[in-house]
Write a structure and sequence with these properties.
Layout (H helix, E strand, L loop, with lengths): L2 E5 L4 E5 L3 E2 L4 H13 L4 E5 L5 E2 L1 H16 L3 E5 L3 H9 L7 E3 L2 H6 L5
Parallel strand pairs: 2-4, 3-5, 4-6, 6-7
Antiparallel strand pairs: 1-2
Helix pairs in contact: 1-2
Length: about 110
């Protein structure tokens, strides 16, 4: 699994550099998100622009990150969503729970006041 992590003062930016966020990738991705949270990263910007497919295990990883960060007074923002991923979030109604920024730059701006 390939990810890029850039830490800033107010948030951590995580780019998943995989085409699929499925059961072969999700456990490691979820583990990395939990580890970052345990290191004090409570605001996460998840860049999923390389992800063209996501399954229920991938959604679970996103929900775990969201729960951990929200429970610590932070937030998770998703950006770079492909039409498939956007559609899946809408069908599962997770678009009402997870915050989405249409562009990476707007996602970064969302943490300026965090």
């Amino acid at each position: 699994m390939k990810i890029r992590v850039d830490k800033y003062d107010a948030f951590v930016e995580i780019k998943l550099e995989e085409e699929r966020l499925d059961s072969s990738v999700s456990p490691r991705f979820k583990s990395d998100l939990v580890m970052l949270h345990s290191e004090g990263c409570v605001n996460m910007l998840l860049d999923l622009s390389a992800v063209s497919y996501i399954d229920s295990s991938g959604l679970s990883a996103l929900l775990v990150a969201n729960r951990l960060c929200a429970g610590s007074g932070g937030k998770v923002v998703l950006t770079g969503l492909t039409p498939f991923v956007t559609g899946l979030l809408q069908i599962s109604r997770l678009d009402t729970l997870l915050q989405v920024a249409p562009e990476l730059a707007l996602g970064r701006l969302g943490f300026q006041s965090a």
